[in-house]
Amino acid sequence: MSVTAPAPTVTPVTDTSAVAVAGHPAATALVGGDVDNRATYVSFGLAYLFGHGSAAVSEGATPLLDLPGWLPMTLLGAGLAIGTVQATVAALRAQRSAAEPDDVLSGKLLGLAWVTAFAALFLAVTGLTATLDLPDVQSLLWPTGSGFVVGLLYIAEGAQRRNLLHYGLGSWLALTSTAALLLGSPGLYWVLTLAGGGAYALAAVLERRRLSTP
Q1: 3-state secondary structure at position 66
Q2: Confidence band, pLDDT 50/70/90 cuts, at residue 191
Q3: Residue 119 pLDDT more than 80?
């Protein structure tokens, strides 16, 4: 009398969010794919609009408005500080959503990179100002230097998170911020306000569309 073993039951895989990689456990999503950057974009966009915008209308031989000299830098600094906090929070969210230990470490390092980059920028601007004995150079280096640093950080984050929008925005900011130095004051402020602030506004709109796309 022969005994036929029952056929094994095969359960179909219905969860397509997990993708197995050879040698590694399945990951639930792309690294940082669910990170919402809109708060960061809006914060930096407002910093560009009010900080650089107020400098654009109050600088030059024939300023459009008579504003206190400290106001543009104060508005810019406040906006950049809020944006940096938002960017750090976004990096921590990306770290929590990561599945691989290497991705978690990358998220931590990117979060720390924001603090390190702006500390280095502060030392560079302060050192050049003291060495060259040109205090007015700060009004040129801080706006363009901060845009350049943020752009490079966005490029690194975009590459690590596989976020083309973030990467493209960083490339645009890095290029336009450094190119603005060719115009001098107040032309560079208009470039930063329109090109930088406009890019952030567009990125915030496109970010909503990116997050809504399955």
Answers
A1: coil
A2: very high
A3: yes
- Which of these ranges, 12-16, 80-84, 142-146, 154-158, has the smallest mean pLDDT? 12-16
With both helix axes pointing from N to C terminus, report the angle between 101-132 and 138-161 in degrees, rounded to the nearest 10.
Answer: 170
Tokens of 122: 């502060």
Structure tokens at 198: 């406009």
The values of phi and psi at residue 17, to 5°, are: -80, -15
Residue 111: name the closest of 133, 95, 122, 134 by CA.
95
Distance CA 188, CA 196 (A): 11
Torsional class of 184: left (φ above 0), alpha (ψ -120 to 50), beta (otherwise) = left
List of long-range contacts for 114-119, beta carbons under 8 Å, 24+ apart: 114/84, 114/87, 114/88, 114/153, 115/84, 115/88, 117/149, 117/152, 117/153, 118/80, 118/84, 118/146, 118/149
pLDDT band for 30, please (50, 70, 90 cuts): very low
Distance, C-alpha 210 to centroid of its chain? 16
Distance CA 61, CA 121 (A): 29
User: Where would I find the H helices in the chain?
Assistant: 38-46, 53-58, 70-97, 101-132, 138-161, 164-179, 187-191, 197-212
Of residues 188 and 161, the one with the higher pLDDT is 188
The number of residues making up the chain comes to 214
CA distances from 140 to 127, 181, 188 (A): 14, 8, 8
Is the Cβ–Cβ distance between 166 and 157 less than 8 Å? yes
